Design the sequence.
């Protein structure tokens, strides 16, 4: 289980997360939605411990992430597989070396076992014949899927996807969504996915959470989420320019007291 | 008032960068002694810093030696001391010019590349990805680069020393018509081993400084392509200035 308790994070004067609480059950697929710049990626980086909260506690299965020593935290991160925006593949390495990277760094597998595991992972994301290519030679959708393959090499318990479908065409978006769904079923892991796409959210999520101004403002199963009467959710689902999301003065975490 | 604020902000930034440099130096030293040692990566970086810089440093050494010979020959001819040109060339190249000029050239060539590479890795989240796969980026990225630069720069300087003295000979003897025997004799007559070693110690320090500054600027890059550009510029500017600064203090200590 992942439990975030009262997480706050600021960069300079910019408050990104504001006493955020969130609980994700084992095996659950949670989708995070929300306008750009509301701290979705920052939240994801808190779950895997890439960023330390200014305040609050991150619990991963009964372990307080920041009570661990740096070395223990490093080891603990084996539980996670993360796919970054745009893939974040190491562009000095081939696809094979990218996927083999976690295996070479963290296991004592021999080259044959590594090769077998890399092929297995590429098979999960339905890619073949790209092992010797450099990331720059791949299309956007392929880069994401190589990123997925790299994320699952160590059989993680928790998968994190940072905007896996942003910038892809509708067909590729569906392919990537299907891959995520299949990975979740095969690995039976907990997953947290950030997306802007409500169709994706519906397809891959058990629950959808909306984050706005550093807090979770709505959380519900996809169908219920789409029917929600919350004005913030309504504006986001309907994709309107006017509404409480774009209104500077309103919303939770907004500058109360400064209202006229 | 604005000028004062801007000046204050600049001083704060310089102090911050200075502090960061020493923090990173400490962390790099710490990670350098911890296993596992990534020898293939260190070797790869040694090729990039050392072997690939040979043409640049060769030409720098050659022309430095040549121009000093040219300058001093004309000057010394006024009081018939042409035979001492060799001494001037070898002393100035070994003690000062080869280490400093080679370091400045390599800073421009390699320090900037380090900043650009690490900066791009930072803004495309590749450094975050390293951490996510339980790999310490300082150990994986910075240690091999700094180690390679610290080892390879003195070796480049040995070459620049030799080429510089050769260049001086070329000009003084072959072009200006000086006495070859007197030139060679005087080149080495007044040299001490200390002249060579102090130059090499300097070179090792410069290697450490420029590579660590290049890595530092890259590692702490913020904000997209523009940020990478800023980091690259700063790596060269701060690297070169630090080398000149360190040169003064090292000379004061070593001689």
Sequence:
């Amino acid at each position: 289980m992942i439990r975030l308790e009262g997480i706050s994070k600021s960069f300079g004067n910019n408050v990104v997360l504001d006493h955020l609480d969130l609980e994700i059950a084992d095996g659950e697929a949670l989708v995070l939605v929300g306008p750009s710049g509301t701290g979705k990626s920052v939240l994801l980086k808190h779950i895997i411990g890439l960023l330390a909260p200014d305040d609050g506690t991150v619990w991963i299965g009964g372990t307080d992430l920041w009570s661990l020593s740096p070395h223990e935290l490093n080891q603990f991160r084996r539980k996670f597989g993360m796919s970054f925006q745009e893939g974040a593949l190491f562009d000095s390495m081939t696809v094979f070396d990218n996927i083999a990277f976690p295996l070479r760094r963290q296991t004592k597998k021999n080259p044959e076992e590594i090769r077998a595991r890399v092929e297995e992972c590429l098979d999960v994301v339905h890619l073949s014949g790209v092992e010797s290519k450099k990331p720059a030679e791949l299309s956007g959708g392929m880069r994401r899927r190589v990123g997925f393959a790299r994320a699952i090499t160590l059989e993680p318990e928790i998968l994190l996807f940072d905007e896996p479908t942003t910038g892809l065409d509708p067909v590729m978006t569906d392919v990537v969504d299907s891959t995520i769904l299949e990975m979740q079923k095969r690995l039976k892991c907990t997953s947290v996915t950030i997306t802007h796409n409500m169709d994706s959210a519906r397809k891959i999520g058990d629950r959808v959470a909306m984050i706005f101004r550093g807090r979770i403002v709505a959380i519900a199963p996809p169908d219920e989420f789409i029917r929600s009467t919350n004005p913030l959710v309504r504006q986001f689902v309907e994709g309107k320019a006017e509404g409480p999301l774009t209104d500077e003065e309103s919303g939770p975490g907004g500058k109360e007291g400064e209202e006229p | 008032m604005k000028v004062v604020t801007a000046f204050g902000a600049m001083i704060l930034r310089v102090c911050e960068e200075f502090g960061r440099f020493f923090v990173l130096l400490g962390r790099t030293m710490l990670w350098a002694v911890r296993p596992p040692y990534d020898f293939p990566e260190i070797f790869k970086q040694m090729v990039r810093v050392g072997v690939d810089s040979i043409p640049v440093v060769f030409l720098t050494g050659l022309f430095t030696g040549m121009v000093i010979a040219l300058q001093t020959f004309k000057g010394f001819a006024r009081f018939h001391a042409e035979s001492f040109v060799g001494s001037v060339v070898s002393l100035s190249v070994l003690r000062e010019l080869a280490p400093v000029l080679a370091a400045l050239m390599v800073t421009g060539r390699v320090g900037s590349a380090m900043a650009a590479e690490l900066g791009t890795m930072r803004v495309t989240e590749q450094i975050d990805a390293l951490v996510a796969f339980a790999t310490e980026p300082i150990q994986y990225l910075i240690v091999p680069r700094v180690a390679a630069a610290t080892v390879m720069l003195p070796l480049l300087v040995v070459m620049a020393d030799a080429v510089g003295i050769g260049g001086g000979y070329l000009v003084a003897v072959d072009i200006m018509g000086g006495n070859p025997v007197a030139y060679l004799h005087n080149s080495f007559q007044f040299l001490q081993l200390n002249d060579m070693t102090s130059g090499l110690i300097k070179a090792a320090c410069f290697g450490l400084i420029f590579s660590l500054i290049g890595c530092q600027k890259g590692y702490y890059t913020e904000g997209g392509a523009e940020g990478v550009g800023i980091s690259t510029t700063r790596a060269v500017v701060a690297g070169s200035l630090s080398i000149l600064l360190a040169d003064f203090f090292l000379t004061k200590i070593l001689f």
